[in-house]
């Protein structure tokens, strides 16, 4: 979905909180479009930008919350204290971005536990392959 669809949703459901997970190259290019369409949270992939802190600042200037996602092969340590403290939410991909129907990668769960231990007050999400058989391991990743 892109900004035109988000705009229609925003008009049809006033006040909706749209958490926009941007699986795009050069996420800096899309901040204004998503903000104008009513996006409330703009989550970008750490691997897709060279300057995450400037991107977070741009997102905030457009009155959106900022989320930072990491792909399965990116270590949780790539999210530094500075990045995590600037972001509102951290997202751990538990499948590879852009390919539907993939199996949940349980090897990504320790990243959730690490982020929770390092940033206990931060919102942490997982994305990909989560269902009845995997939701429990995600929910208890910090135990």
Structural features, described:
Its EC number is 5.1.3.1. This is Ribulose-phosphate 3-epimerase. Its cofactor is Zn(2+); Mn(2+); Fe(2+). The chain is of the alpha/beta class and 143 residues long. The chain has one domain (3-139): Aldolase class I (TIM Barrel), CATH 3.20.20.70. It has six helices and five strands. It has helices at residues 3-12, 31-36, 52-61, 81-86, 109-118, 135-139, and strands spanning 19-22, 41-45, 65-70, 89-93, 123-127. A five-stranded parallel β-sheet has the order 1-2-3-4-5. Helix 3 (52-61) links the parallel strand 2 and strand 3. The longest helix is centred in the N-terminal third of the chain and has 10 residues, at 3-12. It is globular, with a radius of gyration of 15 Å.
Task: Describe how the helices and strands are arranged.
Layout (H helix, E strand, L loop, with lengths): L2 H10 L6 E4 L8 H6 L4 E5 L6 H10 L3 E6 L10 H6 L2 E5 L15 H10 L4 E5 L7 H5 L4
Q: Summed up, what is this model?
A:
The protein has helices spanning 3-12, 31-36, 52-61, 81-86, 109-118, 135-139; strands spanning 19-22, 41-45, 65-70, 89-93, 123-127. It is of the alpha/beta class. The chain has one domain: Aldolase class I (TIM Barrel, Alpha-Beta Barrel), CATH 3.20.20.70.
């Amino acid at each position: 979905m892109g900004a035109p669809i988000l705009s229609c949703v925003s008009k049809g459901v006033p006040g909706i909180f749209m958490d926009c997970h941007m699986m795009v190259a050069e996420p800096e290019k899309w901040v204004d479009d998503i903000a104008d369409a009513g996006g409330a949270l703009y989550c970008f992939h750490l691997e897709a930008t060279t300057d995450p802190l400037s991107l977070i600042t741009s997102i905030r200037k457009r009155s959106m919350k900022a989320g930072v996602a990491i792909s399965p092969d990116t270590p949780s340590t790539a999210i530094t204290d500075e990045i995590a403290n600037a972001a509102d939410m951290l997202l751990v991909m538990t499948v590879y971005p852009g390919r539907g129907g993939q199996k949940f990668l349980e090897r990504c769960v320790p990243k959730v536990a690490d982020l929770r231990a390092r940033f206990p007050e931060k919102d942490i999400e997982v994305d990909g392959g989560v269902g009845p058989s995997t939701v429990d391991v995600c929910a208890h990743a910090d135990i």
